Amino acid sequence: MVETKFQQVAIIGLGLMGASIAAGIKQQALAANVVAWDADATSLDLGCDLGLIDKASDSIADATSEADLIILSVPVQAMAGVLSQITLNGQIITDVSSVKGFVIDTVKAVYGEIPANFVPGHPIAGSEKHGVIAANPDLFRRHRVILTPLKETSDQSTEKVTRLWTSLGAEVVLMTPEHHDDVLAQTSHLPHLLAYALVDTLSAGGDSLEVFEYAAGGFRDFSRIAASDPTMWSDIFSTNASPVVDILEKYVTELQHLKQLIEEGDSEALKAVFERAKAARDHFSKLQQTRHANGG
Amino acid sequence: MVETKFQQVAIIGLGLMGASIAAGIKQQALAANVVAWDADATSLDLGCDLGLIDKASDSIADATSEADLIILSVPVQAMAGVLSQITLNGQIITDVSSVKGFVIDTVKAVYGEIPANFVPGHPIAGSEKHGVIAANPDLFRRHRVILTPLKETSDQSTEKVTRLWTSLGAEVVLMTPEHHDDVLAQTSHLPHLLAYALVDTLSAGGDSLEVFEYAAGGFRDFSRIAASDPTMWSDIFSTNASPVVDILEKYVTELQHLKQLIEEGDSEALKAVFERAKAARDHFSKLQQTRHANGG
After folding, report:
1. Which residues numbered 177-216 in A keep a CB inside 8 Å of some CB on B?
2. CB-based contacts of B142: which residues, under 8 Å, 6+ apart?
3. Which of A156, A209, A218, B161 is most buried by its number of CB atoms within 10 A?
4. Bridge pairing between strands A121-123 and A144-147
5. Would you say B202 and A186 are in contact if contact means Cβ atoms under 8 Å apart?
6. Would the CB atoms of B284 and A126 count as touching at under 8 Å?
7. What's the pLDDT band for A292 if we cut at 50, 70, 90?
8. Which CATH number fits domain A180-265: 1.10.10.10, 2.60.60.30, 3.40.50.10320, 1.10.3660.10?
9. How far apart are CA A261 and CA A266, in angstroms?
10. What chain A residue is nearest to B227 in terms of C-alpha separation?
11. Cβ contacts (< 8 Å) between A222 and chain B: which residues?
């Protein structure tokens, strides 16, 4: 396998994701030089102090003009503003956003076309921690990274970005942006919406918190994800509306069906649904264990 | 505080809960003698071998006739059959079922009245493990136990059962059966239903498991509770139908509202709901931490 090595990597947005990528690149010595830009100067200073980056750039233009790889790790709503400050001169560009269709549309709107070196990406990894201070070079190890190259994307760019992620310990999977947005709407976006809705319903719109005194284990697991960043998540739902609405409608239909079974006292039919769900969950759980046992 | 000490405790149903209570009673030396009955003779043998019980009884009548405390830890659907084999002669009777209204109705149906020594109970504790082998004397430590004494219940019986639980390290809370069933429908039954429904919807009724390959952290937490026992949970929904249907209807209304906000692209309104939910969740999380910090 050809060695992955970049001359200058520019990281735009030095939050948990950007800083963890920087940390991984440093740990694996994948670049001669790592520069970063962030709207928050304190994050950049901390990135320098922690040795995660070699240089803090004053501007996006400055960070990216001489880079051979640009990693965009800014909120999706900030993407257009960031892209408009990048002058394309052959840099490979990738991103880490949770929605791909919206980002691709933004790239097209800003540049008038999809640059051949643009490789949309999404590492399926995260943490409850935030910011540069939580940077972890192993954040992506044994996690999947989905890349959604377009027909305009050069194979070479996809290959280079794949090698970067593989070097950070991740498993890269290629799929279309539409499939990505559909799969993520189901496995990530819907669960977050359900958790927010549960906590909000139980607190009766914030009026009553007594019920939480008696919350048991199941609820605790469930509600943890309701502590996620409200701004980031309202952006995700706004920018991936159609796939989320599709799966949400299916989900509500299933809930209505279960409600009917409960009202009819049909415990045999309820049990059959629960057994089917448990079998699917046990299958999923085994998949996870196998992946971890294989170290990949 | 007066010492809690029983002459003979009879545990009917030696699964995780019954066996953990037995283990706790042994550990704290709360009874001169612990006897148990279970439909499964292997569980009883194991209970003896592990020193959790002093004697395995051949029949419910045999286990309970000389007891001063009877603990019912059998599935709710088995309750009527068990009760009909107990001849009342002043024993205190308590149970550990997740639903209280149904159990109380069963007691009334079997005996024609509520015995003065019946103290309905529900420890808010559990484990993913099952059976005698998983018995844990500390299972209830720092957990809440809800007791729902009725107007017929004698204060002395409630006091004795309260002391038992307190001696096992639990915090006892008294409330009405109706309030218990309503609170548990919200904090435990609804989350389990949502988790089963999510896994079932995403696996398209068991037909497709590809989506689970990309399931991220949030989903993992969520789906863990979908691995719970299908028989036990279909029983819970059948026996606590009305409070579950009530909260489920509120929840579906909230989902419909969120769907509308997503369709309208109203990310400010979405964000406001998420912020409210996060604030409630953070409050809940602090409650939990405070309780653990206080060791009670």
Report:
1. 183-184, 186-188, 190-203, 205-206, 209, 211-216
2. B169, B170, B171, B291, B292, B295, B296
3. B161
4. antiparallel
5. yes
6. no
7. low
8. 1.10.3660.10
9. 5
10. A278
11. 191, 194-195, 221-222, 225
